[in-house]
Amino acid sequence: MDRMRRPAHAAAIGAISAAAIASAAPAPAHHWTGDRHALDSAGTADGVPIGTASFSPGRVGPAFAFDGAGIVNLGHGPGDFGTGDCTIDFWILGDVAGPLQAVLSNRQACDYGWFWDIRGRRELVLVVDSDPTPAMQAWATGGPALGGGWRKVTFRRSGSTLSAFTDGRRVRDVAIDPLLDVSSPAPLILAGGPCVGRDGTRRLVGRVDELRLYATALTDDEIRRLACPVDQDGDGLATVEDLQTFLAWFREGSADFDGDGRCDVLDLLAYLGAFRSGCP
Q1: Which of 70, 95, 202, 255 is surrounded by the fewest CB atoms within 10 Å?
Q2: pTM of the entire predicted model
Q3: pLDDT at residue 32, rounded to an integer
Q4: Mean pLDDT on 246-260
Q5: Residue 278: per-residue pLDDT
Q6: How does the average pLDDT of the chain come out, rounded?
Q7: Nearest Cα to Cα of residue 128 among 84, 94, 93
Q8: How far apart are CA 168 and CA 154, in angstroms?
Q9: How far is 74 from 145, CA to CA, in rounded Å?
Q10: Are 47 and 54 in contact (CB under 8 A)?
């Protein structure tokens, strides 16, 4: 299958303007759009949906959809950032009720080790570990992410600081050991992990859209622009290309902008209202 960031109908809408290209964030090392496939549009780490993992209308075209009985195996390698800077960025829509939910993990076992792991209830928590004891473990908790519609979640490692962002706003900084190594022999799993069924954790019930991994620490401004609610192409701007792309997905029935589980006229009205406001 051709590794396009978008299907042919959206790619043919037109080239991004020179201004948009100039303002875009660095290219991700990996990018899983969830556009009815689990292909890595930026790298070669194609995912494999397992169980009941499927696709449904999302924030930007279709999204990965999970009912608590499915995962996407993203393979070995993605997320093995070692001791280097990195950024993890995605849209999520989930149910705040119920137990702890697994979102994204390269954890080998539900124990100490070398890994990073994102789980949560109302707020998502990134745990990073690099030792078979608690000595090298650190936690960064973001703002509200599950419940209340689509939320943009970003975690960033920059030197000795681990930061959490919600909807483009930095909400937490945590000091970490700069030698903390998060490379793992385990595959990266979306909507699951080894703690499912072990410590009260369940698989994710919800949707994930536009999962990006960067092998660099994005700036606060780049993260803010990636959280622009109407941006469809990841350049951090509200342009006519974004409007045309949204309309193409809307005509296909694949746009759930308001997160109510349906693609209907309310999504169109919500998008147009947000588009008039532009990007923050």
Answers
A1: 95
A2: 0.86
A3: 97
A4: 91
A5: 82
A6: 85
A7: 84
A8: 7
A9: 22
A10: no
> What is the distance between the alpha carbons of residues 182 and 254, in angstroms, rounded to a whole number?
35
Q: Which residue has the tokens 């030698």?
A: 179
Instruction: Give residue 3's pLDDT.
Output: 43
Q: How far apart are CA 50 and CA 73, in angstroms?
A: 7
- In order of 57, 105, 141, 208, 209, the CA distances from 54 in angstroms are 11, 19, 28, 11, 12
The distance from CA 269 to its chain's CA centroid, rounded to whole angstroms, is 25
Separation between Cα atoms, residue 75 and residue 17, nearest integer Å = 34
| Predicted local confidence at residue 261, as pLDDT | 85
Side-chain-side CA neighbours of 60 within 13 Å: the count stands at 27
| Structure tokens given for 206 | 């919800």
How confident is the model over 137-187, as pLDDT tens digits? 677 777 777 777 898 999 999 999 999 999 999 999 999 888 888 999 999
Instruction: Report which residue type is found at 16.
Output: I
Q: Any idea what the Cα angle at residue 63 is, between residues 232 and 107, rounded to 5°?
A: 115
Mapping DSSP onto H, E and C, the string for the chain reads CCCCCCCHHHHCCCCCCHHHHHHCCCCCCEEECCCCCCCECCCCCCCEEEECCEEEEECCCEEEEEECCEEEECCCCCCCCCCCCEEEEEEEEECCCCCCEEEEECCCCCCCEEEEEEEECCEEEEEEEEECCHHHCEEEEEEECCCCCCEEEEEEEECCEEEEEECCEEEEEEECCCCCCCCCCCCCEECCCCCECCCCEEECEEEEEEEEEECCCCCHHHHHHHCCCCCCCCCCCCCHHHHHHHHHHHHHCCECCCCCCCCCHHHHHHHHHHHHHCCC
